[in-house]
Design goal:
Elements (H helix, E strand, L loop, with lengths): L11 H30 L5 H28 L13 H16 L3 H9 L11 E2 L2 H14 L1 H5 L1 E5 L3 E9 L19 E8 L1 E5 L2 E3 H5 L5 H23 L14 E3 L8 E5 L13 H7 L4 H4 L3 E4 L1 H7 L11 E2 L9 E2 L2 E5 L10 E7 L1 H4 E14 L6 E14 L5 E6 L3
Parallel strand pairs: 2-14, 7-8, 8-16, 9-12
Antiparallel strand pairs: 1-14, 3-4, 5-15, 6-15, 9-13, 10-11, 11-12, 13-16, 14-15
Length: 413
């Protein structure tokens, strides 16, 4: 989990958990400092002290996970106050979709299809969810999907989003006031293509639940599919191979940053296979920051999993201050060397030649493409007595600026 949008209020439960999180971090610092003192005065830290540091480190992760879960729970959709209630077409669509979800009655949606192009059937059947339901699913995904929360997002109505970029800039130069202006060369343009791939979920419900008037079918659907969508797309945005799914930023050709060229993702090596250097381990992190140009550093994020984050929590600077710091406000990310940390469990743990840490301006570096429309096909036959809801969404993704993202390789070179 990562940065929480300002439009999502922080609940009392999140604030309480945040207080526990901060107290646990203070206990972690005290225990880790004790371990370091023991290592200086003895040949090694006491076994009990090491165990205490590890236990508190795990407790920090557990507090963070509970805060994420509470924040996501607080972001659950509330359709009762949506503006669509005041739109005749919106009310008709909501009523027709609710009847389709509960009873499989398609008449209302068929009538809307004849009036407008906003609702329709595909070759496989099914109907588009109401606009507000789609917005709420997207809102939940922006909280639950780590990379989506920090990446650039583009809505499209077609199947492919194409973005031009210049492979060579137009020539320029200085001239005197009355000097001749030589003709300049024109820039060379190429094109990046981001196809939208289909992702699906198939939540199930009993007819008894659907018949219960107190059950909000739209909220239930949004809640069910966001978990599956978030898990699948988060993995694809990190390591997807681009075949029937988005292409993850780790799946592009990785090259040593000194040899970086457009179309590749640059990396720095720690110099040690599967680990940080034994002395001054944080130097690799500082060096990685400055592989980015200044314009990208101002909006940069760290991306790593919780295991790697647990190791980094122990790092200090020359003044004895911890490089990793908990956020000062509930709902905001922790920081590392002053930059926000985005925790993604799909990033690899430390291993030989692993790319376990990414750093960059993901808003400019990685693009998520969403095709408008989430479609639902009701299936009451396949898994009786359960009713299946085959729900599909089209999503694409890939690197759009190869200068904006850098990797840390845990290898010799």
């Amino acid at each position: 989990m990562n940065q929480i949008s300002n439009e999502i209020p922080v609940s009392r439960e999140v604030k309480a958990e945040f207080g526990s999180f901060q107290r646990t971090f203070e206990a972690f610092k005290s225990a880790n400092d004790q371990k370091l003192r023991e290592m200086e005065t003895r040949l090694g830290a006491d076994v009990l002290t090491r165990a205490q540091v590890d236990r508190i480190n795990r407790a920090l992760d557990e507090h963070k996970q509970r805060m994420d879960e509470l924040t996501l729970s607080h972001a659950r959709p509330d359709f009762s106050s949506d503006s669509a209630r005041h739109s005749p077409c919106g009310r008709e669509h909501k009523a027709g979709f609710d009847l389709y979800m509960r009873k499989g009655v398609e008449q209302g949606l068929h009538e809307l299809e004849s009036k407008a192009l906003s609702v329709g059937t595909s070759a496989d059947g099914g109907y588009l969810v109401p606009d507000e339901t789609e917005r709420q699913i997207d809102r939940l995904l922006s909280v639950a999907s780590p990379i989506r929360a920090i990446a650039g997002v583009q809505k499209i109505s077609g199947n492919v989003y194409k973005k031009p970029f210049a492979t060579s800039a137009a020539s320029t130069g200085w001239v005197g006031e009355t000097a001749a202006r030589p003709q300049t060369t024109t820039p060379t343009l190429a094109e990046l293509s981001f196809p939208a791939m289909e992702i699906y979920a198939m939540p199930s419900a009993t007819q008894t639940i659907l018949d219960d008037a107190a059950v909000d079918t739209e909220a239930w659907l949004a809640d069910e599919v966001q978990i599956i969508f978030a898990e699948q797309e988060s993995l694809a945005f990190v390591s997807g191979d681009g075949v029937n799914k988005p292409k993850g930023f780790l799946s592009y050709t990785n090259v040593a940053n000194a040899s970086w060229t457009w179309g590749n993702v640059g990396y720095l090596a720690t110099g040690v296979s599967g680990a940080f250097a034994a002395s001054n381990p944080s130097d690799a992190l500082v060096n990685l920051i400055y592989t980015l140009k200044q314009g990208y550093r101002s909006n940069a994020n760290w991306v790593l999993n919780r295991n790697v984050q647990a190791d980094i929590r122990k790092f200090k600077d020359a003044n004895g201050l911890y490089l990793w710091q908990p956020s000062l406000q509930a709902g905001q990310p922790s920081t590392l060397l002053g930059y926000p940390v985005t925790e993604s469990e799909d990033m690899p743990s430390l291993g030989a030649n692993s790319f376990s840490i990414a750093f960059g301006d993901f808003k400019r570096g990685y693009l998520v493409v969403d095709r408008l429309g989430i479609r639902v096909l009701r299936d009451p036959y396949t898994a009786k007595p359960y009713v299946l809801f085959y729900t599909t969404k089209r999503v694409g993704g890939g690197v759009q600026n190869f200068e904006a993202i850098k990797l840390l390789k845990f290898g010799v070179s």
